[in-house]
## 1
Amino acid sequence: MSRRKRRLASVLLAVFCAAAFWLYKGTSPADKAMVFAMTVHAENGDLLASPVVVGEAGQTVEIHLVCEEDPRAERMSLTLSPMGVEDGDLLYSYELSVAGRVKAERGTVKLAVGRERKIRLHPDDPRGVTLSLYAAPLKHPGVERYLQQRKQVRRPPAAT
């Protein structure tokens, strides 16, 4: 390669790197991190699952919980696939399976950032469930408060 072509290639590479830095500056993985908290309750109020995961904004989130007695069997699986933003709210499609209760229930849900959303599935069936979803950026001011409230609700009563 001639000296002139090498110099041109170096200049083009420098321009490309500068443009990429300018486009993505301030966008670190922490800026895209989202907290996804969910609970699944049976119709009688029993808590079936309560995972909290950190995912990336705009990416599919998959949760698979296995049975303690048989790790090959799933107790619950949930897939949240982003569909965009509508009126400032996050729009997701979901697929939920809960062993012995719900098999591959699909739908869409609109999540207001930092607010819990409840979805009742098969409310007339004794095996029906309520799915509660919460999504907010990791740096959202309400995340810590929401997670603290979840801990207090799930804390067993003190022994007397």
Note: The longest strand covers residues 74-86.
## 2
Amino acid sequence: MTLFEKDFYCQIGLLSTGFAKLEHSIREIIHLLIDVNCEFVSKLLIQENSTSQNQQLLVKIARVRHNEEEQIVELNKMIDSLRINRNLFVHGDWRIHQEEGKGPIFVCSTTKVTFKKGTYGISTMRNTYDGFSLSDLELEVQRIQHCIDQAKEIIARLNK
């Protein structure tokens, strides 16, 4: 494994674990805002939700509670801007492309199959390719960490 590959996998790992921490923080904020004596009530409400569903629920509860509403809406916007790349990073097919005299570019491809109604029920596949430098990935890790820090501040204020 090359040094470029190690750096790449390190960043992908940081992205993946960072987003998992962020998802946990969202669930914790929801629990604190629901504010019931039994911790299992909030866990039952959110246990099978996607991150997107929990984000929507979080914003709704914050609006009803009038507690940390502005901060939660802003956090939600930041998380939304990260989700598209997060899914691409975690579920995409990665290749390292190295041009002579240039740094490596990490290329992620995704395949989407779409079905178009036609005489014979033809299906088509579409491939998309996105290229990222190591600094792009590092910036994404920083953005996720910023969201985690914001969530921790909200949690700390709710715990007071």
Note: Residues 3-158 form one domain.
